[in-house]
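Researcher: Good morning. I'm working through a list of sequences from a screen, and I'd like to move beyond sequence-only analysis. For each chain I'm collecting a predicted structure so we can compare shapes side by side. This is the next one on the list. No need for commentary yet; just the structure.
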Amino acid sequence: MIERKKQQMTRDKVSRLVNWGHWFAFFNGILAMLIGARYISSVGYPETFIGWAYLLISTIGHFTFLAFIGYLLFIFPVTLLLPYSKILRGFAAFIASLGLYTLLYDTIIYDDYGIHLSPFAFDLAWQDLNALLHSTSYIITPIVIVLVELTAANFLWKRIDKLQKKQWGNRVVLFVGICFVSSHLFHIWADATNMTEVTRFDDAYPVSYPATARSFMETHGIDSGTQASESRSGKSRKLSYPINPMQCTAETQQNILLISIDSLRADMVNSDTMPFLSQYRIKNQRFMKHYTGGTDFETSMFTLMYGLQGNYSDRKEFAVTGPILTQVLTEQGYQQALFSPPLTDNINTNAMFKGMQIHTSEGANGSADADINTIASAGAWQSNQKQPWFALINLTAPKDYDTPIGFLGVQTIKPQIELKPAQKVLFNQYRQSLNFIDQQLSTLLSQVSDNTIVIITGTYGQVFTSNSSDARNDLSPGNVNVPLIIHWPDTYANKINYRTSHYGIAPTILSHVLGCTNPSTDYSAGRSLLEPNNESWVYIGDSRRFAIYQKSEITVLDRFGKYRIYDIDYSKRLDKKMSAPELIQVMREGRRLYNQ
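Model: Good morning. Structure tokens for this chain:
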């Protein structure tokens, strides 16, 4: 009998401790929500009722679920092994405080870098600890959390009997369960309908994996490719672009011709393949170490027009915000036009070329024919202009290794780089395409007056593969080193050996042609091409996969923090840790316009 009473008392004690543990977990879920509000200020607040509704139920469901999982993993086993209230309360307060410290630290890292805690992020943040913990509040806050946890643990223990009698537990569990399930159902609907006001919060909270409709749709034969743009919805605070109002007054107005050639490698501008451009380069300013901003049209053109890192193109604000370059051109009365084959319908195309007349050219037999029509259209347009003008011409034949039917170009040669047999065929066909483009450039530039500023560059480089996905993902020098040639009226030819990038093209035009006196940091990640660049790195890519080109190595990263380091020729992978200072600068530059 006595033994049964002891067992019953033990069961009652354990039951009371378990009940207390549930309420303690719920209380910590509330504290986690309060700390988690910092994520929303980093991501940006919802702008619609639907966005607020989803955020509310998602926040309640997610953080209470995390708190309950923490209880099950760390506190519940101790409840069974050591059912002593004083020990359990102290231990639970310690575990809860540690969890909230981790969450608080994660909000700091997310606010500064835009990523959640991981071994990679922790290593990065540890090296930048002084800059992150720049306030005494990060010392005081942990002390406050411990005091709150101990107070709450004792408070709930003393009132656990009253809470049990009121039978609120089942209602709380039901409410939290409804929030958790409904948030996932809500997200499935939002994912299926591409509602970015909801899906833009996907990565806001740590350990968050909201249910999606994509796998369901693909299983049932529904194309979900259109959903890919949801990742480009943007996660940001209010954009400050430019940081300060532009101050621009041009003394004279010069015509500007910008020619961007898809898949133009820097090492292919030579007398054998492109004799006209090779001679034109010698007579003008030639930049020998120039880098594109991306390995596809959209990212590279974004860096060229905006002068910003490619990861900004993912932000929703740039779906409607045009480049400062075209804004100032419009204010100064320039006629603006884009000449190109049909553009892909993507989120930023309209904004990127805002204020420009868009002339598209079709080619009955491929992109080479389209380029011929593009050149003809541009020549006719510029000859009819009575006002100062800015024209952007995009040529695409080299991307497709294309030439017109019957075109007789250059002789086949042995590649200077090591290639496989199939790549050698592509290499020589690529040279034919470049020779065709060279002839088109000769035709075009013969129609342009000598007092026109002419800028010729590659949109991106070329790797010898017929797989477009492989080409986009390749961040090797052959795909990112592109030529840059500038004809500046009444200046001498000049060979420039310091490193430059697409980020400097917009600041150069704005400062040296349009008379803008703002520092380039007000609107760009670059600086004038005519100023020596002492930056130790260049960012190439978007927010999903990018490379940091440093002086002696290349670091390639993806959005999950996985990285590989190569030598500067991309021929050998280096077994070393990443240099944190450069990466910290890169990540801060990629969020700088949202931190003003």
